[in-house]
């Protein structure tokens, strides 16, 4: 028995295709032909690939923060999202994609929700880092895959199996083993430098900021899935990047945050890397969520922690501990389990529109 239809996702035949995904099989094969492993798991693989670029972007931001003078987080957001916005507009203009700025009619409200909630998901994480260690904030924000899976079930009427829920819980356990947050492991080494006098009220504010990030990310990922094929991935990213750029620029003006100008070629290179990696990551993530149910797809987001551990070892010589290796193994095993246990698609409708 299939899940009841959600009013947020119309019938497949009412969806206008902008080229992001195909109404037929993703590799162009007929419906009755068996799909290859990569074709049947295209959405999940795209999401996992996106996490590599997210991790690479985080490493670039960390390297950028070590330069003198340091660049404020809001300025990094402005530059990163400004580059993303320009790339989206150039791509859609060259390819002749309709409605490059406003987006297609019928989904503009959901695109607006994606842009605003995405900003809160991004800014909440930066805000939390003022009062929490990176490990604490990471573990709290990685509640997002679980909350997104629940939101997909409630609002989009997507299936959410017990196996997927168990895999998500184990993946979160892997994140905890890698991050080893101070509020669980009691390690004072995880407290960020520069904030030794964080009081209970400030720490509570940091936890609240993480919850804002979780809710923002949940709304963003759920809205991407609700938009589905009705908009090109660049439309989705345009709204996200535009709102982040506008609100971050306004924040810099309101709080009188000075603009840091380039002082070396390395400074410019790292900022470009932040923009390019962020653009690639958001593109792959959007394409993946358009092809995959949120309950299953968000499991692949845990792979970012694994990539961060490897890249930190390569760039900073940080050797992962035994617990980190164990956590990485749990994350990869859980993601692989979800991929291998992919449910067969419901035969609610076929390509020619006849009922199964």
From TrEMBL:
Signal peptide: none
Primary location group: membrane
InterPro entries: EamA_dom (IPR000620), EmrE-like (IPR037185)
Domain EamA: 42-179, 206-339
Keywords, ordered alphabetically: Membrane, Transmembrane, Transmembrane helix
Membrane topology, as annotated: Multi-pass membrane protein
Residues annotated as transmembrane: 42-61, 73-94, 106-127, 139-156, 165-184, 204-224, 236-259, 265-285, 297-316, 322-340
Classification via SUPFAM superfamilies: Multidrug resistance efflux transporter EmrE
Pfam families, A to Z: EamA
Top-level division of the source organism's lineage: Eukaryota
Cellular localization per UniProt: Membrane
GO cellular component terms, semicolon-separated: membrane
Protein name according to UniProt: EamA domain-containing protein
């Amino acid at each position: 028995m299939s899940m009841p239809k959600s009013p947020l996702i119309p019938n497949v035949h009412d969806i206008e295709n902008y080229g992001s995904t195909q109404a037929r099989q993703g590799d162009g094969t007929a419906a009755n032909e068996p799909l290859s492993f990569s074709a049947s798991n295209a959405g999940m693989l795209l999401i996992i690939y996106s996490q590599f670029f997210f991790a690479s972007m985080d490493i670039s931001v960390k390297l950028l923060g070590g330069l003198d003078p340091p660049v404020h987080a809001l300025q990094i957001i402005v530059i990163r999202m400004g580059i993303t916005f320009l790339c989206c507009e150039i791509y859609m203009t060259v390819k002749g994609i309709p409605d490059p700025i406003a987006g297609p009619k019928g989904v503009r409200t959901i695109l607006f929700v994606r842009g605003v909630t995405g900003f809160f998901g991004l800014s909440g994480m930066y805000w939390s880092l003022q009062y929490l260690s990176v490990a604490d904030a990471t573990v709290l924000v990685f509640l997002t895959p679980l909350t997104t899976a629940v939101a997909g079930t409630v609002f989009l009427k997507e299936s959410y199996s017990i196996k997927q829920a168990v895999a998500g819980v184990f993946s979160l356990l892997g994140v905890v083993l890698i991050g080893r947050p101070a509020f669980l492991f009691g390690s004072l080494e995880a407290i960020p430098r520069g904030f030794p006098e964080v009081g209970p009220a400030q720490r509570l504010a940091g936890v609240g900021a993480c919850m804002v990030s979780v809710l923002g990310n949940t709304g963003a990922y759920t809205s991407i899935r609700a938009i589905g094929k009705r908009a090109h991935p660049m439309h989705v990213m345009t709204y996200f990047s535009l709102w982040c750029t506008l609100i971050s620029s306004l924040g810099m003006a309101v709080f009188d945050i000075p603009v840091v100008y380039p002082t070396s070629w390395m400074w410019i290179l790292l900022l470009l890397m932040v923009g390019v990696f962020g653009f690639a990551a958001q593109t792959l993530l959007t394409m993946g969520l358009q092809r995959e149910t949120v309950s299953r797809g968000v499991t692949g987001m845990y792979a970012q922690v694994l990539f961060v551990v490897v890249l930190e070892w390569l760039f900073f010589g940080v050797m992962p501990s035994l617990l980190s290796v164990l956590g990485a193994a749990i994350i990869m095993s859980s993601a692989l389990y979800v991929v291998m246990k992919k449910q067969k698609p419901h035969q609610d409708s076929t390509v020619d529109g006849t009922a199964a």
